From TrEMBL:
Cited InterPro entries: SHOCT, YokE-like_PH
Biological source species: Chryseobacterium gallinarum
Limits of the YokE-like PH domain: 120-212
Superkingdom of source: Bacteria
Protein name per the record: DUF4428 domain-containing protein
Phylogenetic lineage: Bacteria, Pseudomonadati, Bacteroidota, Flavobacteriia, Flavobacteriales
Domain SHOCT: 256-283
Length: 286
């Protein structure tokens, strides 16, 4: 089993899974340590954790940290009535930023999220983030924007990170084509473009606002050609739904995704029916 804790990113052990009440509403799991910390914040979570999403639990942890920092004047350390936490790590800061952005990332993106502490610079801040498929190489991962760049990453099963980076100074404009069930994010760079299929169709709006504004302020070629506005394109009916997922993908990518699905099934994140459904979808792309 190689599933990871949604909060701290450590690998879940068989002992963690024996808790039986540590599953979140969006399918993720907490390790026994994080589960005990969550219960320390709210005792009711021992029986109701399955009703809460990752973002909500992270918000509880963040609020508890803030409350803990507001000590009464003159109180001695032994008199402070709050749960003691380890100092927040860089990954904690990144996850807090994701929560603040109201990003809805599935459990399948957990490994990419945990890899962000190695991809982001020390003081680099997330301004937008989304789960997606990079249409040029058909890889699934996350795309995010910072004040300096837009980056796509995919954490490979056997280690390593696939990364495609687009510095803001090279971006001319960014477009958001919204369809019925998904959206396409198109980054226009000098002499080329990059397209991403976003699983949440509303995520592209944040990228357009952040990146187009940042590009304009940076004095890039956008000032010479005029700022391109984001626009919406609705496809009537369901006949044209998800046209990109029918394209054939490389066997290497498909087998990596199948391996990931198998490990999620072993961890109990996916039921047999859910595993079979997702497996069929992947095999159809071969």
């Amino acid at each position: 089993m190689n599933a990871i804790c949604s909060l701290c990113g450590t690998s879940l052990t068989p002992a963690d899974m024996l808790v039986g009440k540590n599953r979140l509403a969006d399918g993720g799991y907490l390790c026994s340590t994080c589960f005990n910390k969550a219960i320390s914040i709210n005792k009711e979570l021992i029986n109701t954790l399955h009703q809460f999403y990752f973002a909500e639990i992270t918000g509880m942890f963040l609020k508890s940290k803030i409350d803990a920092s507001q000590n009464q004047p003159g109180a001695q350390p032994s008199e402070r009535n709050y749960y003691e936490y380890d100092a927040p790590t860089r990954l904690d800061e990144i996850k807090d930023q994701i929560v603040a952005l109201n990003a809805r990332l599935s459990v399948l993106a957990s490994e990419e999220v945990n890899a962000l502490e190695y991809v982001l610079e020390k003081d680099e801040k997330l301004l937008a983030i989304a789960e997606c498929i990079y249409l040029q190489n058909k890889r699934e991962g996350i795309v995010f924007a910072t004040p300096e760049r837009v980056v796509f990453i995919d954490k490979k099963i056997l280690g390593g990170i696939v990364r495609n980076e687009f510095p803001l100074r090279e971006i001319i404009s960014i477009e958001h084509h919204e369809h019925l069930l998904y959206s396409i994010l198109k980054i226009n760079i000098k002499g080329a473009s990059a397209e991403f299929k976003l699983h949440n169709k509303n995520d592209g709006r944040a990228f357009c606002t952040v990146v187009n504004g940042g590009v304009k302020d940076s004095g890039s070629p956008l000032e010479q050609v005029g700022q391109m506005q984001a626009f919406h394109q609705n496809i009537p009916g369901l006949a044209q739904e998800d046209v990109f997922t029918t394209q054939k993908q490389s066997s290497e990518v498909i087998f990596e995704q199948l391996e990931k699905l198998g490990k999620l099934r072993e961890a109990g994140v996916l039921t047999e029916d859910e595993f079979a459904e997702q497996k069929k979808k992947l095999l159809d792309k071969l």
